[in-house]
Amino acid sequence: MVSFLVLGLIFGGFMALASLAFKLLGLKPPMIFGKYPLKGIFYRVKFWLALLVLRRLRYRIYRRNEEVLSSEEHLAKVDRAQELSNDPKSYDVVSFMAADKEGQKLMVTLERRRRGVLKAALYLWLPERGLFGSPKLPDMILFTTEDGQENNEFQGGGFHIYQEESMKLWRIKYEGVLKSQDQEQDQQKQQGEELAVNLDLQFKSSSSGHFDFSRDLSSSLIADSIAREPWNERFYSVVRSVNHIVEKRTHYEQNGELTGRIVIQGKELSLRMPGFRDHSFGTERCLSSINRYVYFALFLEDGSSMVVGNLSQPTFFLSSLKVGYVCSPSGEYQPLTWSNFELYSYGEKGIPPQHQNFIVHTEDKEYLVQIKVEGSAVRYVGGDWESKVFNQFVSCTVNGMSGQGHAEFLYRHKGGRPEDIAAQDPSWYQDIKRFEKSLSLLEEEDRDFIF
Fold first, then answer.
1. Eight-class DSSP state of 401
2. Which residue, among 304, 348, 308, has the nearest Cα to 324 in the 3D structure?
3. For the CA atoms of 428, 429, 434, 440, what is the dihedral angle to 10 degrees?
4. Distance CA 30, CA 176 (A)
5. Which residue of 75, 156, 184, 235 has the fewest C-beta atoms within 10 A of its own C-beta?
6. What is d(CA 131, CA 148) in angstroms, rounded to the nearest whole number?
């Protein structure tokens, strides 16, 4: 009888301690601007727990399946244009960024969605002429098929981007008009200069090597972000669905070189630029849940490149996730292991700064990064313009070495897509958007809707 009583007391004490531990780990840490958590009193304990779980999870998902995941068959499967699922949120995105030492810069992004919807943007920065962009910007939505039929290619609106060799060669073509993105003209509602353009470029990578964000990001940086969050009941619910989340998102980047020609108003310009491409696909892009992100892609004179970013997505308990890597001239990727780039220090009021200075580390080197903005433009992302993106075209110095590159500052946008732009959409798309709005307002409309 006494032994049972003792066991009961021990078990009760253990449960009380466990309950206390859970409550302490769930305490909300100090916050900056009510959005960005600082290190709380139990940060170190949470950091090491998160790091242990992350390493075990990555081993189970990636390391022990490395042979399969690095096979030619698997890489060919993930690198091609993806078949969009029946999920209305399914997406498939390819993007390219490049810059040469003369300061010429190119950015192209195409996002395929269901029913032939294509979200597209192209920017061309020419030092002697300024910035030009695809004609529909700042809106990105294009309709590439009749009556909302499916489109299985990155094609439409003058664009055609396609794979020529898996993980090695991609072709980028655009034929149409580019418009001046002069901000003074935009503010004065003046028509900017238009250029007839024919672009034909090839992206080439020397190997199939690439940086997979789920597999290759520094575990220490992810653990740092997670350890700053309150580990409450909702946090554990997200943790339990990690496998599901990973399965529904893929994002990788690959460094290489863009070569080819652009014919502008009948005059041919040859390009050879170091650059990279990224490919993202899945069903959980969740733009509306992203508070902010900042992203730099920098190309240095010695042939190396660097990606630095910071993502704030509080609903996934990643209020300040620092990301990035350095790629050597030979194509070897090293993840960043530390960064002092904090979102609250750069453009928190909605206007990106014109200069940035910050420090990042890889496992064996420290980098001082200095950024100077040369030009910028604004575009809106999402079917309802959920996000506002400032694209900046920059020069940089990294540890004294000169370079050129791109920056993106994304903010939440609550103004919606303007009615005068939405009125030009096909009727079937307007019907869908009306239905979505009626659901959000808990209203019903006497209409037949097409999905």
1. E
2. 308
3. 130
4. 51
5. 184
6. 33
